[in-house]
Amino acid sequence: GKRVSAKAGLGRGLGSLIPENFDAALLVDDGERIENLSVTVLTPNPEQPRTVFDAAALEELAVSIRRHGIVQPLVVSPHQGGYIIIAGERRWRAAKIAGLKTVPTLVRTLKELEQLEIALVENVQRVDLDAIEQAVSVERLHQQFNLTYGEIAKRLGKAETTLSNIVRLLQLPKDSRSALQEGRISEGHARQVLALKDHPEKQAELLKHITAEGWSVRQAERYVTSIKAGHIETKAVKTRLAAETPETKRLSKRYGTPVKIYRTAKGGRLEISFTTDEDLQRLLGELAD
Question: From the centroid of its chain, how far is CA 159?
Fold first, then answer.
């Protein structure tokens, strides 16, 4: 489903990292009941630090809401016969502009919210959690508690850049996301797949190379560099994936000349360079021994 609060919706910072095609349903637990409440029974949180809302951005969000509806529910808490908005005030304001009578909400008491926040913070710190699960927990903290990524980073004792790397993983295409969760590719591999987000067909190709041919992160990196340099043809990319390994370095030292491995779909070739005919004769002599 389309994510309404994407581009303009999350304000500046890491929010823009989440793509529009991210499945926002991941941010709601299966057992949670979403209630459609009238826009009139909701009031903004007086403690919400943000009081100024960009009119143009709200208008843009309203257009998106008219077209796609609200995918990510607001989080509200019972308050004086109505409900106070804990997270999603922008969506509420834009929904009113869009002429919506009701909005999807998750109703939670302040006590439940407190417990959920603690659980999510603990979740991100769990050792057995995979990177995608961590990313979803961080994004839920951001979406459902109006916490900035800076605040979340502080709470978790992580650097904001570390957090941005985690959150960015939600941009992975579905097949790469599954591969990462199943341990078929590493986080380093996943970052290389992400680097090709402007070339979706190459993302799929790179995933295949990593899973089927056991490419290292370094090889994936060289592939990405080649694609970004404009070598889109698979053949052109392949010729640029000359790999230096500890073994080729040992051979280079031994024969006094560069030795490279070129991997192809099946196997590859070992290339030993020479500069002159005498050099070639010397190498042939050494190799024949």
Answer: 17
* pLDDT tens digits, 29-61: 766 788 999 999 999 888 766 667 888 989 998
Phi/psi at 247 (5° precision): -65, -45
Nearest to 104 by CA among 140, 79, 68: 68
Q: Find, among 145, 201, 146, 149, the residue nearest to 170 by Cα.
A: 149
Order across the sheet with 102-107: list the strands. 35-38, 102-107, 74-79, 82-87, 42-44
Phi and psi at 254, nearest 5°, equal -65, -40
> What pLDDT is attached to residue 6?
39
Taking the CA atoms of the chain, what radius of gyration do you get in angstroms? 26
* Element (DSSP H or E) covering residue 104: strand 102-107
Q: How far apart are CA 178 and CA 180, in angstroms?
A: 5
Residue, of 230 and 81, whose pLDDT is higher: 81
HEC profile for 218-272? HHHHHHHHHHHCCCCCHHHHHHCCEECCHHHHHHHHHHCCCEEEEECCCCEEEEE
Residue found by looking up tokens 């779909």 in the block: 265
| Cβ atoms of residues 91 and 74 within 8 Å | yes
- Residues tagged active-site: 89
Find the mean pLDDT for residues 59-85.
89
